[in-house]
Amino acid sequence: MLNFRxxxxxxxxYVSLVMVIAFFSGLCAKGPEWLxxxxxxxxxxxxxxxxxxxxxxxxxxxxxxxxxxxxxxxxIPGIILSLGVLSVAGYLGALNAAGRIFSFILKPLxxxxxxxxxxxxxxxxxxxxxxxxxxxxxxxxxxxxxQRCIFSAFEFSSGGSIGVxxxxxxIISAHLNLPILLPLGIILIMKIVxxxxxxxxxxxxxxxxxxxxxxxERAAVLNTRKQNIEDITNIADAFISGARxxxxxxxxxxxxxxxxxxxxxxxxxxxxxxxFLGKIGSPLMQLFDLxxxxxxxxxxxxxxxxxxxxxxxxxCATGEISQTQLAIITPAIFLMxxxxxxxxxxxxxxxxxxxxxxxxxxxxxINAFLSILVMKAIV
Length: 379
Known about the structure:
Elements: H1 4-25, H2 40-44, H3 65-92, H4 94-110, H5 117-125, H6 127-139, H7 145-156, H8 161-172, H9 181-204, H10 215-231, H11 235-270, H12 273-280, H13 282-286, H14 292-303, H15 305-317, H16 323-335, H17 339-350, H18 357-378
Helix pairs in contact: 1-3, 1-4, 1-5, 3-6, 3-11, 5-6, 6-7, 6-17, 7-9, 7-17, 8-15, 9-16, 9-18, 11-17, 12-14, 14-15, 14-16, 15-16, 16-18
């Protein structure tokens, strides 16, 4: 006998899953105007500009603690919206549907549960939203410590890949002699490769990160989750619950980590560490038939992703690197870009153990140089 209540419940779960994926993927932004009401970027919007200028309240041209504070402040609305919507998705059962569908894909591909699909999709659009969602998955014990480490590797190398790439492409596209989506495809493949390298490492070093939770801790978390679900009686309550978690994470975790990352960046730039690394890295680039200026571009990218893109475009325009050389290093610019910032914005927010930061830095650099080999074979 058919149980119509179960059928309706499952239908709601799958419909909400489709809607949430569409919401974070950006698909709804390209349709009729009414459809954009279900698009993350459209709902999030942009800050207005100051009269007579093209700047919003964050300004430009400064790298300091003050600018870091304003930058972190500008991120908070996106985090609130992300966790609010994700909380609604959980209330409607979208996570259950995601677990049933995506486990067949994500488990063999990355060793992650299907319910992490939202965080993966979001991390490709926004590094900050992806990091917050990942932390939320871990806090609710949906993913384990090992899975959090694998997830961190996927997110840390080229954080916010699609969003950042499409934003930066206008700066560099005029100097590329290849389809502009080709480097993005290489970036996404390398992210998966890097995450699986970490996955293999953790499998070999099984004693380094425990994959289990103490029984009492897990029971306490499950009881808390059950209590929270019982307290949420409608969609509005679900959104507010997620928004409250987002505010707590933003103020107590994200903002201090962003400021710390900016402080490190300023110090290293002021003492000339970037120029020094560029000089000592020149011999390494020669192994790939690239000149020393290519290393300067990559080092610039390590400090600032968009800075590396701008540096590459400038050096190509002045003839210091060729179009072919720029094409070869383009995926690498993004794969190892903004590492100091992402240390705070991604790893710090996720809550990854500090001793594993070295793995994240190493895998990003490995991804970058593997992409150079791939691009060298293609171009």
